[in-house]
Amino acid sequence: QVQLVESGGGLVQAGSSLRLTCVASGRTFSDHGMAWFRQAPGKEREFVGAVSWSGAIINYADSVKGRFTISRDNAKNMVFLQMNSLKPDDTAVYYCAAGESASAYSRIYDYWGPGTQVTVSS
Questions:
Q1: How many CB atoms lie within 10 A of CB 13?
Q2: Which of 35, 54, 77, 94 has the fewest beta carbons under 10 Å from its own?
Q3: Order of strands, edge to edge, in the sheet holding 68-73?
Q4: Number of C-beta neighbours around residue 109 at 10 A
Q5: Residue 95: which pLDDT band, with cuts at 50, 70 and 90?
Q6: Who contacts 61 (Cβ-Cβ below 8 Å, separation ≥6)?
Q7: What are 7-39's pLDDT values in tens digits?
Q8: What is the spatial distance between Cα 111 and Cα 120, in angstroms, rounded to a whole number?
């Protein structure tokens, strides 16, 4: 089992930055690919970014490329999502997930955090 808890969400204005943190506990964190997904009201959960266990492979959704950066610290069992130039369309609950690889497909992730709300006002 891997337990995940996200933090760092909040209410910000468009153009601002936020840094989300996901802390993992339980099974070996460094064995897992880690990802961030988000879900806006009335919409399906969508992929944001993912990083492989070593950090060598990183993928992003086209909608966040150039604005968001995913990283991880295996020594601290943490994964981060640096979000810059935030837009109102980025408003969603952001979820951290752990799985077998750094995939954009939610079904490969076995463990999920409860989520943290990000609200971007115009």
A1: 10
A2: 54
A3: 2-7, 18-26, 78-83, 68-73
A4: 22
A5: very high
A6: 46, 47, 48, 49, 104
A7: 999 999 999 999 999 999 887 777 889 999 999
A8: 27
